[in-house]
Amino acid sequence: xxxxxxxxxxxxxxxxxxxxxxxxxxxAGLSRHDNADTTLTTWTVSWVARALTHDPLHVFDAPIxxxxxxxxxxxxxxxxxxxxxxxxxAAGLDATVTYNLLxxxxxxxxxxxxxxxxxxxxxxxxxGAVAGLAYAFNAHLLTRFGHIQALHxxxxxxVLYAIDRLAARATLRDGVTxxxxxxxxxxxSIYQLAFAAGATVAGILARVGEWRRRPVATAVAxxxxxxxxxxxxxxxxxxxxxxxxQYGLARTVAETAxxxxxxxxxxxxxxxxxxxxxSAPFFQDTAALFPGVTVAxxxxxxxxxxxxxxxxxxxxxxxxxxxxxxxxxPVVPGYTWLFEHIPxxxxxxxxDRWGVLALTALAVLAAYGLALMRTRTRGATRHVITAVAIxxxxxxxxxxxxxxxxxxAVPAIYARIAALPGAVLLEYxxxxxxxxxxxxxxxxxxxxxxxxIVAGYSGTFTPDYTARLADLATxxxxxxxxxxxxxxxTHVVLHLAPLRATVGQAAIDAVDQxxxxxxxxxxxxxxxxxxRTDVP
Length: 536
Fold this sequence. Notes:
single chain; mainly alpha; 2 domains; 4-stranded mixed beta sheet; two-stranded antiparallel ribbon; 25 helices
């Protein structure tokens, strides 16, 4: 068992390096920080790693959008990837290297866990390999580089395992496994938690013929598992509920309609083979949900798996259908009612991402299809079929070499800022509205100093943030001074290049004449001023 596990991990790590190439060749120098979401998730995993080792009870009080609290709850929690980041950051790796290694690790772990699960279900290692490769390296995940919460899908197979065990025997231990699986999924991603909850309902209902033989035991074990999952997630979910009540940040049905999938999404892929031949017209601001010809055909064959496996086939088919229907959003009857009555759905916007359940279902069904073909062949033919299936699943999804950008350097002045005791920073310019994402570089810089900052970038921002910026935009007028004092801001950082382009050099130099700030240090990128509290 240990040998098989180690081989699985080695194989999936190799696959992850291949699919993300050339990232492994230079994890420090390559990145996708041209995408603000990548910068956000890079910052998040490093913040979680720091908070869990320094002040775990306040992990959600991230030091952005000062002085707001619970700011981590403006986006995904990433507790599981952040935990994995702890030894990497402790080893001295910077935030970008840590993120890049977690991308490779997340894909590899996702493939490995699904491989082991399905190999156990089918008693076929090759089938397990196909399931793992199709699950982790598919059109959708390979276009989500900036969303590490999607790439760390290693906990979802635990939920599938528990659903299957509950249908087959329904012991309390199986319920506990379900609860732990749901908790780990939720601590990774709110989106994934919604998908896992939907999959749990669909999977259990699809196997009603089995659990009806022991309805009480199934109900008790399942209820205990869900209760455990909710209890473990309660401290985190409370943060999101509190933020929603305070600021009304829940999504609306209209927003989900804007991000709902269409049939075009299920024909979209970034895989070079299909993109070059025919898929490019469908790959336009959509979720890439094309499963691949090989996976689709093997999945169809998998529906004819032996009778003793039909319970799992029905379960995965139901999960896949659920994913497709939910991905279509409000056009599906009943979706709006579900959205209005299930708070978990109101925390999600990109409805099309539900399509990942369809890809997951097809990955498992494809494994059953390959296992069926392998049982009906012998010798060299069997080996050829196996090799061709694995090669085609890999080739159809392959996007490598992927496009990366040189990692932006954090300005050297932040090393001096890191040495300022008790500093709270206001950085100019600070952005909102359509330019909101331009705050993202401040988050990357913060991973080098961890001082609270007024700026921020996340899934949303609050009305209070907008009001603060309106006052602070008058700097160095008295209105801004009063707001600075109220917020406890100790230092103002002027970033010279963007300010020259907007207000001009003269306005920058005029700050030196303001009596209640003192220039402390500067370089060719920025000036840092201390806010004086001794000037009336």
